[in-house]
Amino acid sequence: MTATPPQPPEPSSEAPAEVPGVSRRRLLGVSGTAAVAGVVAGAGGLWAAERASGSTTSDAGALAAPSGAAALDAAIDFNGEHQAGIVTPAQDRLHFVALDVVTKDRAELVALLKTWTRAAERMTAGAEAAPGGLVGGGPFAAPEDTGEAYGLPASGLTVTIGFGPSLFDGRFGLADRRPAALADLPAFPGDQLEAARSGGDLCIQACANDPQVAVHAVRNLVRLGFGTVSARWSQLGFGRTSSTSTSQATPRNMFGFKDGTANVKAEDTEALAQHVWVASDDDASAGWMTGGSYLVARRIRMHIEVWDRTSLQEQEDVIGRDKKEGAPLGGAKEFDALDFARKAPDGQPAIPMNAHVRLAHESNLKGVRLLRRGYNFTDGTDGVGHLDAGLFFVAFMRDPRRQFVPMQQALAEKDGLNEYIEHNGSAVFACPPGTQPGQFWGQQLFA
Amino acid sequence: MTATPPQPPEPSSEAPAEVPGVSRRRLLGVSGTAAVAGVVAGAGGLWAAERASGSTTSDAGALAAPSGAAALDAAIDFNGEHQAGIVTPAQDRLHFVALDVVTKDRAELVALLKTWTRAAERMTAGAEAAPGGLVGGGPFAAPEDTGEAYGLPASGLTVTIGFGPSLFDGRFGLADRRPAALADLPAFPGDQLEAARSGGDLCIQACANDPQVAVHAVRNLVRLGFGTVSARWSQLGFGRTSSTSTSQATPRNMFGFKDGTANVKAEDTEALAQHVWVASDDDASAGWMTGGSYLVARRIRMHIEVWDRTSLQEQEDVIGRDKKEGAPLGGAKEFDALDFARKAPDGQPAIPMNAHVRLAHESNLKGVRLLRRGYNFTDGTDGVGHLDAGLFFVAFMRDPRRQFVPMQQALAEKDGLNEYIEHNGSAVFACPPGTQPGQFWGQQLFA
């Protein structure tokens, strides 16, 4: 840090006073100024500056106003009313892990949640998992960070935690704090669930614009949990399939269709309050979830080889949108309203009765909506000549019993898409509200 | 293409006359000029313009000189003396697939290679897999492109083909054209190879800066091969672990160390000629491989949980470099020469006798070097609480019998790293030379 410091610009007037919210980029930009050096030291010495010193990005890029590549590199605030990684504009890449708690000691679990929160906060800012970083512990200690993200920018990393129903089974004295909404999902028609891809006491969702940064975050949290937790299943997603902000273009899923056009967006605070965030009077026995949200994950294998041999018309009828533009059938543009009464020239509904968009639409579900945040995956082959590809569905909601369950019930019964998909993994988690500086994940639950 | 054309700059004087070498970006930039519109039409109508029209990148970015994000978006030339994807500066993401040929009809195989070559050429330029694109075949045909990369830029895609030893078993009349260098790899001490991750009649390596573009390329080639080939195994890599150009920073592997510092680089044409490209007099019976290279792939599971609990000194001794800088032990900087005679203060060799860098160094292997082009992977969990993570080793060379085999023999016998890794997949392929416009992959082999 002392050798050849870069010529720094003046600190931005927008730089927050608290270190936890400072991005690694901002620290980089001001690392030569004594005032801010004090702030860095106050946070435990090397921290964000550690990973920064190995940065492979150019100073010019690092100091420019965030846009394009710089925006993809930037840091997201960790603390807030809600956890990051829910309404944060969906990053491009995902690493998701479900874990089982292997200790029966509540204090060990709480200690880990504290350690994890600090590590996640640091990594979100672009720093190593712990202050020692790669080498700070000296030659005879295991490094405090595994190192594979050293030199990479924060990359928009968010780390989001969730608690599964099984965490409330009595091992940790939490049985009477389980929210009623955190019920195991019922079996749906056609489910082909595999135990090795389902459930979990805890989950960690790491999203970033660089997959190496997302993998690094999960790997280091799992490492810090050695002896306390064990990885149950994990899923990489290479491409987002939803937009969670009106600023984002709608991406495409592995069926080649735009996905999530009608998603709840971050800008629609009224819809978020109604459909995503748990309110204080939702559940008297689970007030700790106020400001949190429930996460439903489903691993949906897509039989892409069969899909790829079906006609364009079949594909569009099954989805209910046109393939190229993403417009509702009978409409012209992606964001045209869905007109379910409209007839095609042949007198049949323009959007077929069993089309995915009709069955999943709020008008068919008494107003139910979700915030979808899924990812495309391809995990090798299935052993019989096909790619094991699909959609890792992730959605956030206020109450799965009133949102995901009736929606999936309707889809599982009638959706034409069922011919081409298979749900083989499933889990539900309660994601507690966000933290304030110094708080830990789930502090309200363990209070 | 006719509606609201962007204001184009003058065509670059470097733009080649042949369409196949024209990148989608260049087509975008000049799509308003009649002269070039004719060139586009001459290539079959919609082609590159098809995917372009859905582009989510800004015009400003598309028209700027390639640098930063624009460079990551740009197209790589498909045709050339050598296949792209070997000395091309290693892109960030990988999708690799090995396939078995399921037909016994040589003509069908040749027809597929022709189809594949045109499709790979188109996708490399940022276009759909075939001229019809998503919707050109009309409502009653299956789309000619699966669509998930529609709107994405070329993203530096390269598609590289290889032929496995089993392709020369006599089914296709190729038995007498098998190069002697394309021998099955011998068993190495410690190998834990799984059949479902090994071998294959053919391989396709797709590298890109956007994983969705790499997956799209493999998926569409597999789709085009339905009935002729079947996917045997496939591997995603989320982060490159080698630099293949002096212009690239050295990335880190899942052990957190810089990897491939001493790699053969694209700029060292003498080393490429000596170690990578097959020369015309290498093998009289396999002249078709002149200008080609042999690809060795090894799926190396890393036991990262064990590694993460070892001391920094053990890690650095095993690798032979320091973790933070990547300098040889006893040296100061990453690119310092390896001094194997140097003693540490305790009188022992600074670089231990069984350190990875010592055993893999050319001075220990009679001058043998490889061009490494591997990727980090994380494929879920192993079912007993660990992430299934590691290095998908890919290397290109002139003769595996004289290069990879003796190197791996030395490593398998003595490398301290063996305590932490396990080779569970293996394959070798002959990658034919590059194509000229109109030629197909392996044309010389089937001539």
UniProtKB/TrEMBL annotation, chains A, B:
Keywords for this protein: Heme, Iron, Lyase, Metal-binding, Oxidoreductase, Peroxidase, Signal
Sequence ranges assigned to domain Dyp-type peroxidase N-terminal in this UniProt record: 83-238
Gene Ontology annotations for the cellular component aspect, listed alphabetically: cell envelope; cytosol
GO biological process: iron import into cell
Matches recorded under SUPFAM superfamilies: Dimeric alpha+beta barrel
Cofactor(s) required for function per UniProt: heme b
Free-text cofactor note: Binds 1 heme b (iron(II)-protoporphyrin IX) group non-covalently per subunit.
Residue ranges with Pro residues bias: 1-11
Protein EC: 1.11.1.-
InterPro entries in the cross-refs: Dimeric_a/b-barrel, Dyp_perox_C, Dyp_perox_N, Dyp_peroxidase, EfeB/EfeN, TAT_signal
Region (Disordered): 1-20
Pfam families: Dyp_perox_C (PF20628), Dyp_perox_N (PF04261)
Reactions it catalyzes: heme b + 2 H(+) = protoporphyrin IX + Fe(2+)
Stretches assigned to the Dyp-type peroxidase C-terminal domain: 250-435
Cellular localisation: Cell envelope
Molecular-function GO term, any one: peroxidase activity
Family statement drawn from the similarity comment of this UniProt entry: Belongs to the DyP-type peroxidase family.
Biological role stated in the UniProt entry: Involved in the recovery of exogenous heme iron. Extracts iron from heme while preserving the protoporphyrin ring intact.
Name of the protein in its database record: Deferrochelatase
Organism in which the protein naturally occurs: Terracoccus luteus
Taxonomic path: Bacteria, Bacillati, Actinomycetota, Actinomycetes, Micrococcales
